[in-house]
Specification:
Oligomer: heterodimer
CATH class of chain B: Mainly Alpha
Number of domains of chain A: 1
GO molecular function, one term (chain A): tubulin binding
InterPro entries (chain A): PFD3, Prefoldin, Prefoldin_subunit_alpha
Helix content of chain B: 55-70%
Strand content of chain A: 15-25%
Radius of gyration of chain B: 23 Å
Number of strands of chain B: 2
Number of domains of chain B: 1
Radius of gyration of chain A: 28 Å
CATH topology of chain B: Helix Hairpins
Protein name (chain A): Prefoldin subunit 3
Mean pLDDT of chain A: 87
Low-confidence stretches of chain B: 1-7
Organism (chain A): Lupinus angustifolius
Structural class of chain A: alpha+beta
Strand content of chain B: 5-15%
CATH topology of chain A: Helix Hairpins
Structural class of chain B: mainly alpha
Number of helices of chain B: 2
Mean pLDDT of chain B: 89
Largest interface: A-B, 40 and 33 residues
Pfam families (chain A): Prefoldin (PF02996)
Order of helices and strands of chain B: HEEH
CATH architecture of chain A: Orthogonal Bundle
Distance between the termini of chain A: 41 Å
Largest sheet of chain A: 2 strands, antiparallel
CATH architecture of chain B: Orthogonal Bundle
Low-confidence stretches of chain A: 1-10
Chain lengths: 192, 126
Amino acid sequence: MASSSSTGSGTLVAERRGIPGAQFVEDVQTYLTQLGLDVNSSLSFLQERLQQYKLVEMKLLAQQRDLQAKIPDIEKCLDVVATLQAKKGTGEALTADFEVSEGIYSRAKIEEADSVCLWLGANVMLEYSLEEATDLLQKNLDNAKASLEVLVTDLQFLRDQVTITQVTIARVYNWDVHQRRIRQVGAPPSQD
Amino acid sequence: MQQGGGSETEVTWEDQQNINKFGRLNNRFHELEDEIKFAKESNENLEDASNELIITDEEVVRFQIGEVFAHVSKDEVENRIEEMKEVTSHKLEKLEEEKESVLAQMSELKKILYGKFKDSINLEEE
């Protein structure tokens, strides 16, 4: 599951679903002269980029939580439909205690149910045969699982970009410290 | 998590990829810990439920399906709980296995990265 996805041929993925890829810096000196930036402006640029990544990460994490909650919900629905289907044709009724209102339960006898009503959202409910309901719910479940998988890959890509940016920040910073020291001493530091 | 190299050590694309990989594994490790905790809890709950079932005299018990409590015979509930237990313990096993492999990969990467960057890099959790 945790195999490398953005390996490529040594260079980086330019972007994924609107998330720009972070540039890997081979050499700090060359990087700064190429961009024509000094240390401080390049650091603030990188910090800003990091903040943007963090913002996107929060959004994706919220989406992930939603999906992770949705999947067990659909599975529960499938469970109920399967139970009804199992009872069908046995002549037995399904007796169930159900919640009428918060904390208040009543008893229901469900005899020979051929269909269920599925809440589709947007104030719409539709009656389906048990088979159709199972199909529809299963399709929704598969879709939700597929979206979750894509989302997890997106998050992995994003986190790689965060890591690259963090490492780059540290390297630019260290490079700067190093340069200063050289300038101060006039020679490379002997103890480090 | 990372404190990039000291001033002398050069960071190559390969190093960066190793650091990325380590970060990803570390993330997965934490996810796995949560998932394992959750799986253990549901296992315990099922265990409790089947113990209660042994004690009870009731022939018909209420079994939660979706949002409702269906009246189901004790024997059938026993079977269903056994099935559920099997599924969760299997899942738990898989998660533990993955955790082991993630930890092994992480210590492998630690060896490589510490070997190159010495104490210029910190891969430990705060």
